[in-house]
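for the writeup, i need someone to sanity check this before i put it in the appendix. the sequnce is what the collaborator sent (i think, or maybe the updated version? ugh). structure was predicted straight from it, no edits. if anything looks off just tell me and ill rerun, i have time this weekend
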Amino acid sequence: MATTQKRVATPKKKEKRMTISSYVMIIGLLTFLAMVGILFQHAEITQKNTEIRSLQKTLEDAIQVNDSKEGQLVTNMNLQSIEAQARGYGMTEPVQEQYRRELVTEKKDESIMSDSEIVKSWFENLF
């Protein structure tokens, strides 16, 4: 048995077309995502730059301390070699009788002239 039914026409679905506002929204969204990416990248660069500057300062301080210690070491080695050479020539430690004590007392300088004497002598030298 064959049935003879009429096919019911189904309504065709409308094709969805992109409108200008859709394109603007997509471009805006892509631009926003690109800007967020650039901001994160800039933040990372700034953080790395701060870290590098901190490490450079630490390195400069370490180099300065190293140079100071190296200078002290060279000076100490030079003094030790000089002392060894002097002892080879017969240098000995001084004994108590070889020490001299010096007393320093204040001495009033009588050559200092007062202000009135300076003015008077300048005036006398003028004529």
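The mean pLDDT is 82. Helices lie at 20-88, 115-126.
thx in advance!!
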